């Protein structure tokens, strides 16, 4: 670890975008002596936001690791982006730390949506939370109002450890509440009484003594406060102006004094199917909380060491893939700067380089330590685009480039859709996809044209058809072709797929040719019949037929099977099926009516609606075709306060009035592309 006497604090800095997190981190590094001068987000020279995309947009896009030693403490601060698209980075960061530092913007009218969301994610994991109410020096800021909002949105247990001398222009310093004495201002003495009462209520013995009027020492209060914070019973609030450096010393003191060390909150692993506590006796276990392709040293993977010790040139097993990987260099990271280290021990963080096929969320161990970690449920990509390389050169490079981007971001996916032929990229939002395409152009010199992806419609029948007969004959001087089949078609329930039943008796069709019929039927189903979309959810029963002693052969019965299916399918009241998505929307209560009305206009069916504090929660089933680009519309309805998750639910019949335009549009496109 370099210095075993250092007490480690792993802290995730979280909050909505544009709340001042990066500037807060910059002030943190400056006060701790890590940097000589604070950088500025607008000037693009902060330690955290070193990526070209971050500099261009003036905001954090990617998680950044900031490791700083301060007195006898080492703080590994993970500066996590606050956009809705970056929730996966938040989920990974929270698994790597023992505490969160929640940044709240004093200039915002309310506690912003992503700040609330990230608070709840930290709460699920039982992580202690320290709150920084930042930008208190800005005009119109009111710390009492914001404190009340925190108590309402987060918890009544949000308690100020340091109080400001005022808000806006009058904010110049903070007072230590617990150290207020008889000569302190009246508001500070009152705040101390309230804080003491909050502390003693978390400790039964202290509470009884307090109620009896007995004296409780400063040391006892301090110890009880530390325990209460670590147990999640109290959440300290510190008032800050990162830009002016006000409250930063006190914030660092709060992190050093009240956030738990890794030894205080050991992580859990899974061994032989059962949960186990990870300690020094487990061998090496590491959690990959971030991996990114650097432009110079290939891939960098950032690891939180949960157990054991890691040195350069070690061999590790990736428990997701089973592959053995060789660790190259070992580094301590602070933004883009990587400092060589000789080893890293349990509780600390490090970066390893030149290791391929490792992704965020992976568990790495030594060969002898067969331990895995609980899998993180990352959100499913919600928005897709079809992409087409602009040049032949781009065609040759795009697969490798997209794979690299997938390695950087677990919510970005690229795949060929076999049904539509599209090369599809999927992500969390339109903005997310635009960012990834910009990276594709900048890092890999690959440019693409984009179009909305095709909806993966399906075809099926809605009634049974009996005794569909087709005979294939071909005579051309030499050997002929002959095959006669008789089939029945029956619709199956949704998601049942395809079933082939052989009911031939008496050997009227040889066994080998029955398989040929099945092969021909499946080939025609894959091509589609009604509109060129794959057919599904039907049973085909072969009931009769005839062979020719000389002319019957495999191809003849394949062709007969294809033709019989086409004939019977069109007699079976064919219809189109469309994918239906389940959407869950989180938005302000005031917008609930507008959102539900909008979903109804999209052929949506509301499943549930309720509330989660000041937010409305709505779940609904909506055709995917109606919400491919929903994010912009939801943003418009909610003023940017709404967010949603999306997942596939089922296929269902497309309303009759919508089928004809879909079929005609698809046929026209197939003709233009030279299809059938």
Whole-number average pLDDT? 90
Which strand-content bin applies to the residues?
Answer: 25-35%
Biggest β-sheet: strands ordered side by side in the sheet:
16-15-21-12-13-20-17-18
CATH class categorisation of the largest domain: Alpha Beta
| Topology, number of strands | 34
Assembly type of the chains comes to single chain
Task: Count the DSSP helices.
Answer: 16
Q: What's the Cα radius of gyration?
A: 31 Å
CATH topology of the largest domain: Rossmann fold
- CATH architectural designation of the largest domain: 3-Layer(aba) Sandwich
User: Any idea how many domains?
Assistant: 5
CATH superfamily of the largest domain: P-loop containing nucleotide triphosphate hydrolases
Topology:
Layout: E1 7-14, H1 21-31, H2 52-57, E2 64-70, E3 73-79, H3 87-96, E4 99-105, H4 113-124, E5 129-134, H5 143-153, E6 158-160, E7 162-164, E8 174-176, H6 186-200, H7 204-211, H8 218-230, E9 235-239, H9 248-258, E10 268-271, E11 274-277, E12 285-294, E13 298-307, E14 309-310, E15 315-318, E16 324-326, E17 330-334, E18 337-340, E19 344-345, E20 349-353, E21 363-365, E22 383-389, H10 392-408, E23 413-416, E24 423-427, H11 430-444, E25 448-451, E26 458-460, E27 465-474, E28 481-491, E29 498-502, H12 511-527, E30 538-546, H13 554-571, E31 575-588, H14 592-601, E32 605-612, E33 615-623, H15 630-638, E34 643-653, H16 656-672
Parallel strand pairs: 1-3, 1-4, 4-5, 5-9, 6-9, 29-30
Antiparallel strand pairs: 2-3, 7-8, 10-11, 12-13, 12-21, 13-20, 14-19, 15-16, 15-21, 17-18, 17-20, 22-24, 22-25, 23-24, 26-31, 27-28, 28-30, 31-33, 31-34, 32-33
């Amino acid at each position: 670890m370099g210095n075993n006497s250092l007490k480690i604090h792993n802290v995730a800095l979280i909050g909505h975008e544009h709340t001042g997190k990066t500037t807060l981190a910059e002030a943190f590094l400056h006060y701790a002596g890590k940097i000589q001068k604070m950088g500025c987000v607008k000037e693009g020279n902060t330690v955290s936001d070193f990526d070209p995309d971050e500099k261009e947009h003036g905001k954090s896009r990617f998680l950044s690791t900031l490791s700083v030693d301060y007195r006898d403490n080492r703080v590994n601060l993970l500066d996590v982006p606050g956009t809705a698209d970056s929730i996966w980075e938040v989920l990974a960061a929270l698994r790597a730390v023992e505490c969160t530092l929640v940044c709240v913007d004093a200039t915002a009218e309310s506690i912003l949506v992503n700040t609330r969301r990230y608070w709840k994610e930290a709460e699920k994991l039982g992580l202690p939370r320290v709150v920084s109410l930042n930008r208190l020096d800005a005009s119109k800021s009111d710390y009492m109002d914001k404190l009340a909002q925190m108590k309402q949105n987060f918890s009544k247990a949000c308690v100020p450890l340091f109080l400001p001398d005022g808000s806006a222009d009058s904010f110049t310093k903070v007072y230590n509440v617990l150290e207020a004495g008889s000569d302190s201002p009246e508001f500070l003495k009152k705040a101390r009484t309230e804080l003491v009462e909050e502390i003693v209520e978390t400790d039964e013995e202290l509470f009884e003594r307090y109620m009896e009027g007995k004296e409780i020492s400063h040391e006892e209060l301090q110890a009880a406060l530390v325990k209460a914070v670590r147990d999640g019973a109290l959440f300290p609030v510190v008032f800050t102006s990162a830009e002016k450096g006000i409250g930063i010393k006190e914030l660092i003191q709060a992190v050093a004094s009240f956030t738990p060390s890794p030894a205080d909150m050991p992580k859990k692993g899974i061994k032989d199917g059962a949960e186990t506590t990870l300690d020094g006796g487990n061998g090496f276990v590491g959690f990959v909380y971030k991996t990114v392709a650097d432009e110079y040293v290939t891939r960098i993977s950032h690891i939180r060491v949960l157990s054991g010790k890691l040195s350069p040139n070690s061999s590790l097993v990736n428990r997701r893939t089973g592959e053995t990987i060789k660790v190259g260099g070992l580094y301590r990271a602070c933004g883009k700067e990587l400092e060589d280290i000789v080893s890293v021990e349990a509780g600390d963080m490090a970066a390893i380089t030149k290791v391929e096929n490792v992704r965020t969320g992976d568990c790495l161990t030594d060969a002898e330590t067969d331990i895995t970690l609980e899998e993180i449920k990352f959100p499913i990509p919600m928005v897709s685009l079809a992409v087409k390389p602009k040049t032949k050169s781009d065609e040759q490079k795009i697969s490798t480039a997209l794979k690299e981007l997938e390695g950087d971001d677990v919510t970005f996916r690229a795949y060929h859709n076999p049904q539509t032929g599209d090369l599809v990229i999927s992500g969390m939002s339109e903005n997310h996809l635009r960012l990834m395409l910009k990276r594709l152009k900048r890092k890999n010199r690959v440019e693409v044209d984009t179009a909305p992806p095709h909806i993966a419609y399906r075809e099926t029948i809605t009634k049974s058809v009996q005794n569909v007969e087709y005979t294939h004959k071909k005579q051309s001087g030499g050997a002929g072709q002959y095959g006669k089949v008789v089939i029945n078609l029956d619709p199956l329930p949704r998601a049942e797929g395809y079933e082939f039943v052989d009911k031939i008796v008496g050997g009227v069709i040889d066994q080998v040719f029955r398989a040929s019929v099945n092969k021909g039927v499946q080939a025609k189903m894959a091509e589609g019949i009604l509109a060129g979309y794959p057919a599904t959810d039907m049973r085909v029963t072969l009931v009769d037929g005839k062979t020719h002693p000389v002319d019957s052969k495999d191809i003849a019965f394949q062709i007969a099977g294809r033709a019989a299916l086409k004939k019977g399918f069109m007699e079976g009241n064919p219809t189109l099926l469309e994918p239906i998505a389940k959407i869950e929307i989180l938005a302000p209560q005031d917008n609930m009516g507008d959102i539900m009305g909008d979903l109804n206009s999209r052929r949506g069916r509301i499943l549930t609606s309720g509330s989660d504090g000041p937010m409305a929660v709505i779940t609904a089933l909506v055709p995917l075709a109606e919400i491919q680009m929903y994010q912009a519309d939801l943003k418009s309805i909610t003023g940017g306060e709404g967010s949603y998750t999306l997942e596939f639910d089922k296929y269902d019949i497309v309303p009759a009035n919508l089928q004809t335009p879909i079929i005609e549009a698809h046929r026209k496109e197939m003709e233009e592309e030279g299809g059938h």
